[in-house]
Specification:
The two termini are 36 Å apart. Helix content is 0%, strand content 60%.
């Protein structure tokens, strides 16, 4: 059999890689492929604040598109809220977007070692509307069974 060669080059980060298969000197096919990182994570998270702690970062969160190579989750009850890892700041954070498009951090914790939210250890900084500041608090994060998905 004749040898075939495949080459790839990135056209644009939004459109993915352009793959071309060659047979001899004749170009046979070209196709765009978007490659995404494999992230391990549960399909659902159940988040509950500790005793005496009030925060809007509670509820059932469903898997959303991965962010910065780690699983992300969204809760659409009430105001939309997402749980994401932020590489730029090195923290896990709950973010709410208001109708004007501004993002507000509702809670955050600096645990860069946790590959998934249920592995986060330590306290969270929870935003308190009354004092317009962050206070330490505990969030219990329980995950449904972890699965591997391409997103």
């Amino acid at each position: 059999p004749e040898a075939a060669m495949a080459a790839a080059r990135e056209n644009d980060p939004r459109t993915g890689w352009q793959w071309q298969a060659m047979l001899g000197q004749v170009r046979r096919t070209a196709a765009s492929v978007v490659l995404r990182r494999l992230a391990v994570g549960a399909q659902k998270l159940f988040i509950k604040a500790g005793i005496g702690v009030k925060t809007e970062a509670e509820g059932t969160f469903s898997r959303a598109e991965d962010t910065d190579g780690r699983p992300a989750y969204a809760c659409s009850l009430g105001r939309p809220l997402v749980l994401v890892f932020n590489n730029a700041h090195g923290d896990w954070r709950f973010v709410r977007e208001d109708p004007s498009g501004l993002q507000h951090v509702v809670a955050l914790t600096q645990d860069v070692r946790a590959a998934r939210p249920e592995l986060i250890g330590g306290a969270w900084q929870l935003f308190k509307n009354a004092s317009n500041s962050f206070e330490l608090g505990v969030l219990q994060i329980t995950a449904s069974a972890a699965t591997r998905t391409f997103r």
